[in-house]
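Q: What residues go here?
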């Protein structure tokens, strides 16, 4: 449930991490301070709460068990409180919220509320039973009506309790503590941007690589220690927040924040302009990769993407014979790919869009949108670099630096050139 197909395939150091799918909301450029020294996104001075979307229950009546057997749970909503023993079963229908199990009953005002919250005893994690046992989550659970239909299950918790579960989900257990500390600063900075930008939304982050992976209550001591050692620390530039984008492997050549996530003043900040050489991730198993895919599936996905995104040349592309790099950034990473078909038709697409166009490929998406391809019968032989969007911290590179005795701040300085580390709370 928590894992995407790809995270199951590569269990840690996951793919896109804070990668951009969907991209964070765009800041209105017209409102950005032009040539001013004011920070683009001021840094708050108190620890925020993070709302993690764990599940979407799309059908009416879809029920969810919450709590371990015998676990005391307090259900609060609309000023009411009712006391239960886990597990309880939460569902929603036209009549409102329904909670069944031992305890209650759920007061009428709670049945009619927008959201109900399930609180374990202070300091105790809430259990979520699943097919492979139960997952544990710090903080509280929130069940809220989804305006798109059905309801959402959120984990709501203080930022510092959230970070260890990100580190344990994102990094390999044998990687050094300094790598974890650098990742903690990046992940906290990314989550803080989401919290600030998504105030008017129901949730801030998901628990998967579409934002950054999160596995709930962390048990790994390196993850817990790294979060504690960097408590409150975020990336800053010119007094404002730098979103700590990161990826699994940059393939040696970084993307900029603008290329990876989209153009806005926040992403155009100097620390997101890409790290200098030498690259550190050359020994990563995903540094360079090849893969053979069904050509027709790729062609059909590209045409679909072209139609939905008004790329008419791509919408008309026929039998693809090659995909090549048409343009690169200052670091040497492709920023435009050219797709050529058998009748000489040509279309261009950027690697991030390529990655999203091929996201639903039956055999799984390519590890990054930065690849070239050659036709071979009914197949395309892809040859690519890296894993994820390539901006900010490269996890494999950060691991190699940590193994070579770099401290967390050194890793941060390399991947976010010019950024400072600010202790916000
Ligand atoms: Zn790298």
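A:
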């Amino acid at each position: 449930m928590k894992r995407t197909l790809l995270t199951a395939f590569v269990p840690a150091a996951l793919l896109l991490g804070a990668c951009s799918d969907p991209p964070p909301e765009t800041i209105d450029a017209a409102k950005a301070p032009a040539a001013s020294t004011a920070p683009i996104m001021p840094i708050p001075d108190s620890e925020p709460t993070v709302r993690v979307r764990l599940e979407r229950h799309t059908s009416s009546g879809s029920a969810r068990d919450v709590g371990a057997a015998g676990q005391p749970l307090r259900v609060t909503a609309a000023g009411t409180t009712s006391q239960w023993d886990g597990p309880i079963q939460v569902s929603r229908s036209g009549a409102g919220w329904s909670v069944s199990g031992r305890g209650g009953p759920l007061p009428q005002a709670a049945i009619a509320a927008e959201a109900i919250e399930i609180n374990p005893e202070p300091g105790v994690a809430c259990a979520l039973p699943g097919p492979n046992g139960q997952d544990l989550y710090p903080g509280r659970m929130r069940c809220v009506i989804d305006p798109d239909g059905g309801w959402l299950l959120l984990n709501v918790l203080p930022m510092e309790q959230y970070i260890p579960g990100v580190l344990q989900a994102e990094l390999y257990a044998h990687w050094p503590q300094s790598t974890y500390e650098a990742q903690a600063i990046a992940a906290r900075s990314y989550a803080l941007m989401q919290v600030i930008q998504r105030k008017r939304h129901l949730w801030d982050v998901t628990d998967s690589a579409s934002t950054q992976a999160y596995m709930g209550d962390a048990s790994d001591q390196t993850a817990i220690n790294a979060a504690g050692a960097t408590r409150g620390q975020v990336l800053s530039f010119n007094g404002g927040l730098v979103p700590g984008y990161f990826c699994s492997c940059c393939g040696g050549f970084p993307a900029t924040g603008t290329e990876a996530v989209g153009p806005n003043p926040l992403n155009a900040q100097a620390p997101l302009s890409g790290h200098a050489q030498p690259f550190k991730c050359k020994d990563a198993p995903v540094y360079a990769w090849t893969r053979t895919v069904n050509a027709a599936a790729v062609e059909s996905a590209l045409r679909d993407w072209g139609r939905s995104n008004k790329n008419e040349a791509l919408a008309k592309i026929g039998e693809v014979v090659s995909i090549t790099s048409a343009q690169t950034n200052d670091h040497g990473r492709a920023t435009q790919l050219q797709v050529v078909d058998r009748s000489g038709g040509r279309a261009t697409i950027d690697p991030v869009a390529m990655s999203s166009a091929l996201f639903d490929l039956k055999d799984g998406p390519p590890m990054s949108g930065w690849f070239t391809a050659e036709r071979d019968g009914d197949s395309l032989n892809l040859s690519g670099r890296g894993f994820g969007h390539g901006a900010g911290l490269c996890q494999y590179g950060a691991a190699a630096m940590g193994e070579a005795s770099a401290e967390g701040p050194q890793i941060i300085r390399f991947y976010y050139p010019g950024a400072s580390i600010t202790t916000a709370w």
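A: Context that may help when evaluating the design: Residues 1-17, 19-35 have pLDDT under 50 and may be disordered. Residues 177-197 form the longest helix (21 residues).
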